[in-house]
Amino acid sequence: MSEQANRKKFLYVNRRAPYGTIYALESLEVVLIGAAFEQDVSLAFIDDGVYQLVAGQDTAGVGMKNFSKTYRALGDYEVRKLYVERESLAERGLTVEDLMPITYEDEDDDYAEKPSIHLTDRSEMARLIAEQDVILSF
């Protein structure tokens, strides 16, 4: 069995808006730490968590540092699976076009740039959650 197959699967579930609380930033920091230790890391964006990936965030009015650009660096840490719940987007009047383009370079495909964001419906999200070894909710 390969080392990849032996790694536990960690899913970080993001349910809160990016600003106003520390949850979104804390989640991102924990994801980066886990990835640095070569965990099999995935992120799920549900409910108001979908706002974390919205393009063009401006935090000047809330007095918090804009950390949204850090999501674009996730591919460098081999974090390539960002699952966004389609219904959560729709309930908030958003589409995938409203989200930041988050990609990674696939070394197995001549470093082609590929999308990290995967839209899922609620039933698919439930299946993904059930398949994980460790789930951390923020």
Please give a structural write-up:
The protein is of the alpha/beta class and 138 residues long. The protein has a single domain (7-137), classed as Hypothetical Protein Ychn, Chain: A (3-Layer(aba) Sandwich), CATH 3.40.1260. It has four helices and seven strands. Helix 2 links the parallel strand 1 (9-14) and strand 2.
List the defining traits of the structure above.
globular; 138 residues; Hypothetical Protein Ychn, Chain: A; alpha/beta; 24% helix; two-stranded antiparallel sheet
CATH-defined architecture: 3-Layer(aba) Sandwich
Could you give the order of strands across the largest sheet?
6-3-2-1-7
Rg calculated over all Cα atoms: 15 Å
Q: Unreliable stretches, pLDDT < 50, 5 or more residues?
A: none
Number of domains: 1
In short:
By secondary structure, this protein is of the alpha/beta class. It has helices at 3-6, 23-36, 86-91, 122-130; strands at 9-14, 40-45, 81-85, 103-106, 112-115, 117-120, 134-137. The longest helix has 14 residues, at 23-36.
Layout of helices and strands, plus pairs?
Layout: H1 3-6, E1 9-14, H2 23-36, E2 40-45, E3 81-85, H3 86-91, E4 103-106, E5 112-115, E6 117-120, H4 122-130, E7 134-137
Parallel strand pairs: 1-2, 1-7, 2-3, 3-6
Antiparallel strand pairs: 4-5
